[in-house]
Design goal:
- This protein starts with a helix and ends with a helix.
- The strands form four sheets. The protein has a six-stranded parallel beta sheet, sandwiched between helices. The protein has a two-stranded parallel ribbon with strand order 6-9.
- It has ten helices and twelve strands.
- Helix 2 crosses helix 7 and helix 8 packs across helix 10 (about 265-284).
- The protein has about 280 residues and is α/β, with parallel strands linked by helices.
- It has helices at about 5-10, 20-30, 55-65, 85-100, 115-135, 160-170, 190-200, 220-230, 255-260, 265-284; strands at about 10-15, 35-40, 70-75, 105-110, 140-145, 150, 175-180, 185, 190, 210, 215-220, 235-240.
Length: about 280
């Protein structure tokens, strides 16, 4: 008879593009005592830019080790093309088939890319995955990660606004600010995002849910917060900085109510941590 800890252990087949979110998620799952089988395109011949995994490789990995969870993490814009014939669409179809064969809970966790065309493609892609989950009668769903920042990520992988702001402030250099598609943000620290992913894997919950920060911030608010943490004004070179308000704020009531999730890392603490990491990297 397995003990309580053994019954709660998950064996997670993690399919990712190897970004900082995937690394943090894998580390968190292992720290909690779960087993992670990491499948990355680059592990099979350096195909990370296309998202292609050779035929049979994913299925063989699942068959050899078994799994009761299948987690797909999508973040890089190169992996979010949602054309019907794209490698990523094909890979997700294979992943849902693996989940069905192993009676595993399936979760797709996605972060929207910066380019407008990529965002539209990703939204359509999420809808198609959600339909596929329902069509196959799978236990699981899709979660969106809004405004990711934090962690020890490469500059190109950081949030489109926070990362460059902090880097410029630490280096005492002008920051070029091009307000993203909306000037109102709900920044979400990577630790809170990972907690949300774990909650989606661990518990039955909503088909679709959005994880986001607790407080809305406009671009100017974020600049003021970075200035307060660094103790010095920032020299800004503004580009298309506006004050438009969001008409589609994240709805995280389901995440709070059904998954018992809530963001724990406040924006000030998160940026302070990121500024310290950036300063340490710069000194090094």
């Amino acid at each position: 008879m397995p003990n309580a800890k053994q019954r709660l252990t998950m064996k997670v087949l993690l399919i990712s593009d190897g970004t900082f979110l995937a690394r943090h998620s894998a580390r968190r799952l292992v720290d909690l005592g779960h087993i992670v089988l990491d499948v990355r395109p680059e592990d099979f011949g350096g195909l990370g830019s296309t998202g292609a995994v050779p035929d049979g490789a994913l299925e063989e990995r699942a068959e050899s080790y078994g799994c009761d969870r299948v987690l797909c993490l999508l973040g890089r814009s190169t992996l979010t093309a949602a054309a019907p014939s794209s490698p990523m669409t094909t890979l997700i179809a294979r992943a849902t088939s693996v989940a069905q064969a192993h009676q595993a809970r399936f979760v797709l966790a996605s972060a929207l890319p910066r380019a407008a065309s990529g965002r539209l493609a990703m939204l359509a892609f999420e809808q198609e995955v959600a339909r596929a989950v329902r069509r196959h009668g799978l236990d699981g769903g899709v979660c969106r990660l809004e405004g990711l920042y934090g962690g020890h990520a490469e500059a190109a992988e950081r949030h489109a606004l926070l990362g460059p702001l902090v880097s410029a402030g630490v280096a005492a250099s002008p920051a070029q600010i091009a307000a993203p598609w909306d000037a109102l943000h709900w920044p979400l620290h990577v630790r809170d995002a990972v907690d949300g992913i774990v909650a989606m894997l661990d518990r039955g919950g909503p088909d679709r849910v959005r994880f986001a920060g607790a407080t809305p911030y406009r671009t100017r608010d974020l600049v003021a917060t970075v200035e307060a943490i660094l103790g010095a004004p920032m020299a800004l070179t503004s580009d298309s900085l506006d004050e438009r308000r969001s008409t589609h704020p994240p709805h995280i009531a389901d995440a709070r109510r059904l998954l018992r999730w809530r963001p724990r890392v406040g924006l000030f603490a998160g940026i302070e941590e990121q500024a310290f990491a950036e300063a340490t990297h710069t000194e090094g």
